[in-house]
Each structure stands twice: as structure tokens, then as C-alpha cells.
Amino acid sequence: MSTSTTNEYQASTPTGKIANFMDTRAGLSPMVKEFGRKIFPDHWSFMFGEVALYTFIILLMSGTFLTLFFDPSMAHTTYEGSYKPLYGVEMSVAYASALDISFDIRGGLFMRQVHHWAALLFVAAMSVHMLRVFFTGAFRRPRELNWVVGCTLLILGLAAGFTGYSLPDEMLSGNGLRIIDGVVKAIPVIGTYISFFLFGGEFPGDDIIGRLYILHVLVVPALILLMIVIHLFMVVVHKHTQYPGPGRTENNVVGYPVGPVYAAKAGGFFFIVFGVVALLGGFFTINAIWNYGPYDPSPVQAGTQPDWYIGFVDGALRLMPGWLGDFSFKWDIPFPWGTNTLALGVLLPALVPAGILFTVMFGWPWIERWVTKDNREHHILDRPRNAPTRTGVGVAGIIWYCVMWAAASSDLIATHFSVSLNDVTYWLRALFVFGPFIGFIITKRVCLALQRKDREIVLHGREAGVIEMTPEGEFRERHERLDDYRLYKLVSFENKKPVPAQPGRDGKIKAAEKQRAKFNRWFYEERVAPVTREELAEAKTHDHSDVPSAVEGQDSQSSIGH
Amino acid sequence: MSEQSHGGPEHTGAVEHAGVEESGKYAIDNPGLPPHRPRLADEDPKAAKRAERQVAFLFGISIVGTLVFFVGYFVVGQIGPDTPVATVRLQNMLLGLGTAFAMLGIGVGIVHWAKTLMPDHETTELRHEVRTEADRQIAVGMIEDIVDETQVKRRPLLRNTLIGAGVLAILPAIAIFRDLDDTDNRSDLATENFGPERLRHTMWATDVRLVRDPTGTPIKASDVTIGSAFHVIPEGLNELEPHEMLNQKAKAVVLLMRMNPEDMQVSPERENWNVDGIVAYSKVCTHVGCPVALYEQHTHHLLCPCHQSTFDLARECKVIFGPAGHALPQLPIRVNEEGFLVARSDFHEPVGPAYWERG
Amino acid sequence: MKALSQKRRHPVAGLALLLLGLLITGGLYSVASTMNQAQASNTGSSYSAEDITEGEKLFNANCATCHGIGAVGTEDGPTLVGVGAASVNFQVGTGRMPMQMQGPQAQAKPNQFSDEQTAQLAAYVASLGAGPAIPDEQYLDTDSEDVDLGNGGTLFRVNCAMCHNAAAAGGALTRGKYAPSLAGVSEQHIYEAMITGPQNMPVFSDANIKPEDKRDIIAFLKQIESQGSPGGASLGSLGPVSEGLLVWTGGLAVLIGFMVWLTTRSS
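ok -> C-alpha cells follow
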């Protein structure tokens, strides 16, 4: 062997020697070559995904600690641990061990709280990350599949959260499981059996905690990890998107190299996220299981809510009226073999809003592509204002979600704002129906107004904050032209015109195509066109004259509906 | 988008890019990256030295944080039966504060280092196509060849029997989960039947005494004054084996209240279900099963705290608000010879949420 | 029955109904209390005649507008015959009575009367008819050797937590009514609330929850109130809603601050 190494690259520094060792054994140089100086764009809104990734790592670490002490058994025991107000109370081993983690193991309470706070933050960060991707159009080709992987991650995040929420087997999560049992039983034909299979017989049984436990600590995290790997792999393949701006094109990435700047910032940010979660865990109680007592089917507490990310389903359940006048949504269907019951009052709110939300979410890249006929690759992001209809749809969705979310805390809204619980429900029912439409209209108007403001700034400069007096004695604010770098950001977007219905191969326009053209018009008809070369040139000639620019110029309204 | 709007790529069939750069597309051409603006630390060695000290200071804070953690862990020390809650809280706070400083010190320090001392030149990297057109054609060709060599298209018998076998082979993977509910073959669980029929029966039966939850003491009719509410379980429930106890309790919990008989509407078939205005209703919400236990003694309303279904006790617990689809089932009761409240029978309908087989 | 309840506004019908209700309540109560050895004296005989006359003066000056002369009740307020001294001590002692205005529910507010005046009012109302008396000191002694916190907690969760929340932080009822937080409520007032059932709260007579058990409940409440939350700030003990609110407004907002700092260029 030694004879053949004479021509080998000889490293002189210690770092080089280690690198040499690793490369000759594991062949890592190509990876370093690929990643060492890879460019990542820098923008604060690109970091939500990192928060999600880092909280997931924190979850794995704190969760591993907790598994060493937690006993997911529903066997019966009498609590004899350190928390006095529960001393001598009958409970399950799972609850007793969760209390022991909190009161008899040093740092156990801290780890429990870190774990739970990180979980809430994990789902929150994923949600905001997805909103960022949606509003900037980052899901467009070639990134559709990664969007789907992201949506799957969100659902897995909800699954991880829900299975974990139930593990301590205390009254709050026990009633949560009971609600799940009730919802499952509402599923026609198979619901009752699914419930029996889930709980190993009748609710609550003595199997459910162990079953949720294995899902929570093994199956769901493994799937999340797999999806994260795919997600990040695809980010590397696609390279990151970037906002429009000077020097940025569809063919390049502008930013900082992984080594050292990006790695340092991203690595440092992990510690920052950990620090913030640690602050939450150290100073704020979360899931005060000692308050709730052991699970028992008889007691319940005022303010029984799920963790925030399940809240929207709970809220939908609250908003649904069980009766409309004398009509009950519990429908007894007479069949030849007897009567079966369809609990629409449970089924509709539990499945329909979540179903619509997730279907639209998963399918949006294809929905938008079908409507706009835009099948090109996009690496430059849309500024949300430059896609008013998409932004409007997004805000409508957010409002719809938030109404359901608020409904999940209707009782607390009632007590804390001294209003009637029933009135809160009535208002939220109205908002559930009308809120999204109002949100869409307002958002679209705001986007168009912002686009007009951009035009105004491009053509006439920005308000300098300096008031001048003309020789005639008139007061005016001076306007300053932007430099080209700033100007480019405001003008570099496409004037997307509606695409009329296209005839198919046989020369006829199909009904679906007509429908598409209708949506397409709705998507693009109202828009503010970017400033053109000619307009800019004209505005500049006005500038050179003595007349101050702000008052002049064409009415930007006219650009609506080009 | 119509092709002329952006010039249209010449290489047909290849991936189209949104904004293939061409001059004249936008009001001004891309001016390129703005000139680099040097930072203080780039030009002034003093500023660079200062930044270095700041970063080192932040790392120092991290060290202090780790020490705080150890103070919380070892000085506050072991927690146990004699530890006051305030000490538990103090320890938790010190652990949190220590960890937070240890982490934030490192994190903020590294980022500050990157921002002030590491190069801050924005650089540009070219994107390349995810895959080239030629590669894709070769790959598709290969796959087609592979499929062809298997001859699966020419021999449909092979294909069809394989599909049939495959579909069948999945079924055991589903069937094997059948015993997730194995109550019907477990001798220790006294359930006579597997399936939804179980949901129709509770522990209540003729002459089972109503006892207080959780103490299990029987209730005299005279104990139940107007306006009072008793949380009730069937006698004998507490003596069941713990697992079976919870299952039975989940169906059998009852709320016992007394109203003025004058205020109650009683349907003819329920005339003898109450005792001078003492009524017993299932506590399991007919919506999704939370305990409906919030009783307002003046309005006679029962409220479920989970989804706010409201039932009117004066009208046999009819739904007056919220998502529940049917009234709470009433437990028929009477007074026995010793003056204790007993059930006349089981509930006349299944308790709790509606399910398919409920009928 | 329905007709009667709909015509409740008719003064005579309402009065008859209330009297009937009170007769039954009072009657049953005396039955219950004789069965219960621990029940304190409920005749009001421990008050002096002077207390009663002073109380009557106070009553006529402050309460009779709504409750009527002789506490027989009016359209605006129920009769107080037979509600007992405990009820007066609770309602007046917590400032709920006299009411500021008619509403879904009487609010607790600063006490309008001195302890002595409250006692005199209680003496007067107790003299009108038998009712729950002011609880015996021994059942308010939460430091007693016999206190079982675990038992108190279990009973609290079964009987009280559904309205008052598992950590006694309070909760909503229908149409603007609510179950108040129990933090800062005195032992005596908690006990009196249980035996008298103020507002829409059901009555938990000593026949339902024994006086010793009531003491356990009170001791449990005092314990969780004085010990505070082991995990740090309790966020109102409201459960997942306040936690979710903090993670969005606090956690995520702080992180966004860091993100913006992280991605801005250093000067």
C-alpha cells in the first residue's frame, strides 16, 4: 500500500490531515466541494423552516430524556410521590410516572416543559413557514413535490402533537381522547368498530396509552425524520428561491456561502432557538398535569381545550349547531334492516373544514397552475402584493382557520371580555361564513393599493420628508428618485394578463377550459401593471422641467384593467 | 402565460424559465448587485477588536449560564417529598435560565461573529437545470427497455395473476389487526358480546342504588334539596376491577338534581321516572361524550364545558344550544323502602354520542 | 306548570312559587340537618335580640328596596326568609349584595358593610326562618391534622372543576353568567357558597358533601393557591389556550426578532 501513496496529496495542516483521512476512507471531498461554498440567500422570512427543524431536534433530545423515566402503562396505582395535593389518589402508572418526572426527578419538570413548548413552537414554525412559501409563490415549479412533502410534515406534526398530548393520562387529555372517541363513533358504518379497535374495546380501556406511546416515540418521529431528509434533499437539488432584487435573476442565487457565514448563522440560530425554548420552559408552566388529576370519566374542567394546532377542529365542533329549529343533524335513517344513525352534527364539522383546508393546501400548486397556465420554472419569488388574488385567497384561508381557532376558546373569550358565551358563538358562526369573503376582498384591495403605491414611488420618487416653499408661496413635499437598485425591485414583475379559453386539439373549447378561463380572469383581471420603460422615461422628462414631480404624472388608476 | 410575453425560449420541450433575462423586459434592466459597503470592522482594526471582545463576552455569558444550571441542579439539589413547591419552581427557573444563557450566549456570539468579522460579500452562484433534457430521454428509454424485457406487456396472464396475488397478499396485513379489540376472547372481561351492542347497556338495573361519586355512599331522597346537584355512580361500581371500573363509569355517570316539580314538563311515559322533582340524567354529552356537569340551578340549564351544548332540565334535557343532536337520556328512579334512591331500570336508550348502529 | 312559569312576573304567583320552593327547601333542609350531627345550629338563636333589631334597621335601609319589607321578596329580588345567616354572610361579605345593577349575575366587589353590620344583617335574616348557619370554625381549619388534600382534590374535581376549572381559575356559563375564580376567597365564604348555592351555583348541602369533606376541599384550594405553580408563571391556569397564545405572541415573536437581527447587515 505504502508504495502507491507516493503521489498522493499530502496535507500539511492538522485540518488538512483530518480531511485527508476522512476523504481516503469515506470519500467526503465531493460533498465538501458541493456544499462547502454553496450559496444560500439571506432573508429573515427564510428562517421559519430552520426554527421547525431546530425545535424538532430539541424535541428528539428532550423526548429521549423523558422516555427514560416515563412508563406508558394504564395499570392502576396509588400515588405516593412528592406532590402533596395528589397524595393517596388512585391513578394510572402513566400519570404517576409523569408526576414523578415533574416532582421527583431533577430537571424532569424542565425537560417536560421544554418538550411541550418546543412541540407548540414546532407546529407554529411549520405553519408560518408554509404561509411564507404560499404567499411568495415558492411552491411553483419545480418545487411542487417539496410543497407536498411539507404539507405531509405538517400533518405528521399534528399527529406527533396529538399522540403526545394524550400520554400523561390526566383528566384534560383524557377528555380529549373521549372527544376523539365521540368523533370516531360518528363515522358511518365502520366508526364504532374503529373506536373499539383503537381503545381495545370500550372507551377508555387499558390499551390506548401504550398504543399512542409507540406511535409517538417511534412511528411518527421516524416518518417526520424521513420527510425532513427528503425535504432538505430537495432544497439542495432545487437551490433556494430568492426575492426579486438587483443582481438576482432566475438563473442565479445571491447570498452567502455555507462556509463560513451561512453555517455560522444557521448553527448559531440553533442555539438561539434552544435558548428561547429554555426560557419558556424555565419560566412558564405548560400542561400543568398536576392540576388536572387522574383521568376519570366523571370529572371535567371548565376550559377543556386541545393544544393550539388541534384547536381549529375543536372550534368547528363548537360552531356547528346541533339543531336548526326542529331539525336535528342527528339523522336516523330507516333502512330495511333497521334504523342507522348518521351523526352529521359531529361528522360535518370534524371532517369538512379540515378536509377542505388540507385538500386545497396539498393541491394548490396544481390548482394555480391549471388556472394560470403558468408551467414555467420559478426561482424568483413573488412579492405577495404582486399576486393579489393568491394573497387574497391565502388571507381568506387564514381568517377561516382563525375563526375556528377562536371558537375553540369561546368560553375564555366570554369570561375574559365579559360577553355572553352564546353571543360569541353566534358572532363566530357569522364570521365563519362571511369572514373569508371579507378578508379576500380587503386583502386584494390592499395589495392593489400597495402596487399603486409602488408605481407612484417609481414614477415620482419617494417622499423625502422635506417641505419646500415654491417661489409662488406654495408648500410641497420634495420627492426623491430611487436609485436603480431599489427601483429594480419595484418594477421587476410580470404584467400577467388573463389567458382566454384555448381550443383543444379538435379546435373546440371544452367546458372545463371555459371554467378555467373564468377562474383565470378572476385571477388576473384586476391588476396593476408594472411601470413600463416608456412611462418611466416620460416621468423622468417631467422631472427635468421646473415643475415638481409629485403633482404631475399620469393617474395610476388608469393602469387598472389594462 | 402566453409565450410572447417573455420572448419564449427557443429550445422547445426544455424547461421554461419564468424570467429568462433579456434586456427591455422591465422598466429598467437588472443593475446587478449593489456595490459592497464595508463594515466598520472591515476598515477599523479597533472596531474589529471590539467585535472580537463582544463575541468573547457572549461566550463568557454562556459559561456563566452553564454554571447557573449546575447551581440549580446541585445546589438546590435533590427534590422529594419534603421539597416545597417553591423550591421545585426555583430549581426549574434556574435550570431554564442557565440553559437559556448557555445557549443564547453561544448562539448570539456565533451570529455576531459571523455578522461582524466573517466576510460579508454577497456572492452569486449559477443555477443549473434540475436534470438535462438528454438525461431524461435516456432514463425514459432505459425504463421502457426494462419494462419491455420483462415481457409483462405481452403476457397479460402474468400481469393479472400478479396483481391478484398482490392485492390478496395485503389482506393479512389488515386482518392481523383484528385482535386490537380482543375483549370477546378474554375471559377476565365480563362482556357477553363483541360489537356495538355493548354500548346499549350500562351498570344501571332495577333497584341498583344511586351512590355518590367517588365515595360510593347511598343517597336518601331527603338529602337532595331543591337546587342541589349530586354526582352519582351506580352502587358496586367502585368494587369492580380498576380497568372495568373506568369502562363502566364512562357510561354510567349520572347527575342527580332536584327542581321544583311545578317547573318541570314531564312527558306521559316518564311520569314515574322522577321522585318529587328529583331527576337523574346521564352525564355523558350526546355530542361527543364530555361530562355535561355544569348545572345552573335557577335557569335549570346543563352546560357541557367542551363544546357548549346546553340542555334544559325543565324540558327533559332537550338541546337548547350548541352542537348536540339529541337530549340527554334520563335514568328512571324511585325511592326504596329504606328511603334511598334506586334506579327503576337501565337507561332506555344508549348514552353518549350517536353512532351508526344506535338507531 | 308551564303556564305558571310563564306568568312568573305576576307578583302573587311568583311569591306563591317562591314560598312553596322555600317551604320545601327549608323543610328538607331541617330534615337533612337533623340527620347530620355535625350541622351547626341553624336557628339563629346565637344572635342577640339587639343584633336582630340593628340588622332589621340595616335591612330596611339597604335591602328592602328589592327584597321587600320583612324580606318577603319583590319583583326585583327573591324573599330571604329561610336563606339563613350563611347566605347573608356570603352575599354581603363578598360585596355581591347590595347589587350594583341588575345583570346576568351579581359581581363580587368591595364589601359595603362592616363585619359587625354584616353579622347584624345575618342575625336579622336568620331570625326570619331557619336556614344554613354560618359554618363552624373547625371545618374551616385547613391546617388541621385530619385534612386529606388528596380527598379534597378528588372531590373538587368531581363536584366543582367543571365550572370553576381544575385550578379554580373560573369558567364560563351560559348567557353571560360565569363561575368565578376561587383565588383569594376566604375559607368561610367558600364553605358558605357550597351550602347556600349562590346565584346559579347548585347547593352542596352537608348531606351531599360532609363538612369534613368540605374542609378537605377548602384545604386543597388553599394549598394550590399558596404553593403557586411549580413550573413558573401559571399563565392564568387556563390550559392550552393561554399556552398557545404565548407561543405565538411570545415565543415566535421573540424568534422573529432574532431572525431579523440575524439577517440584517452589520454596520
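Residues 1-5, 545-562 of chain A have pLDDT under 50 and may be disordered.
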